[in-house]
C-alpha cells in the first residue's frame, strides 16, 4: 500500500481576523516605497515627470523630482476562510509625496485603495505552497488629493491594477514558494 503524505491545516475566520487585528493595531501594515525601489523596467517611475499624466501640476511645480509612496492599512483587513481558499478584503490608503532636494516631503495626492484577494494553498510533491490572486480593486481620491480629477484617478487605478498583476501578485506568489511538508 502506497502512503501519500497528508497535511491537515485548520484555519478559522477568528484566527485569521485576530492575526489581522494584531498586525493592524501594531502598525505593521505600513510600507514606504521610494523611487529607487521601483524596478527600472517598470514603465512608470516614482518621479514627478512620470506622474505628469495623472497630476500635471506636479511636474510644473517640481520638475523631475523623486517621489515616495506611503501605503498603509486604513482599516483592519477582513478574512473569510473557505475549504478551497482564504478570501481577504484589504482597505488601504496610498499617499504620494514629492521629495525636495533638502529631503522635505511635499504631499502630492492621497487615494483610498481597496482590494479583494484570494489565497489558495497547494501541495505538490511533498511541498506546501500557495497562490495569491487579485479579484478586484478600486481607487478613489480623498480630500487633499491636490487636483486629481476623476479621469486621472481612473487612469491611475488602471495602472495600479496592471502593476499589481505584473509585479504584486507574482511577488506574493514567490513569497508563498513551496516549503517541504514534514
TrEMBL record:
| Gene name in the database record | Bpi_2
According to its UniProt record, where is this protein mainly located? secreted
Q: Which UniProt keywords apply?
A: Antibiotic, Antimicrobial, Disulfide bond, Glycoprotein, Immunity, Innate immunity, Secreted, Signal
Q: Which GO terms describe its molecular function?
A: lipopolysaccharide binding
Enumerate the spans annotated as Lipid-binding serum glycoprotein C-terminal domain.
1-181
Name assigned to this protein: Bactericidal permeability-increasing protein
Point out the signal peptide segment. Answer: none
Q: What is the role of the protein in this entry?
A: The cytotoxic action of BPI is limited to many species of Gram-negative bacteria; this specificity may be explained by a strong affinity of the very basic N-terminal half for the negatively charged lipopolysaccharides that are unique to the Gram-negative bacterial outer envelope.
Q: Name one Pfam family in it.
A: LBP_BPI_CETP_C
In terms of InterPro entries, this protein maps to: Bactericidal_perm-incr_a/b_dom, BPI/LBP/Plunc, Lipid-bd_serum_glycop_C
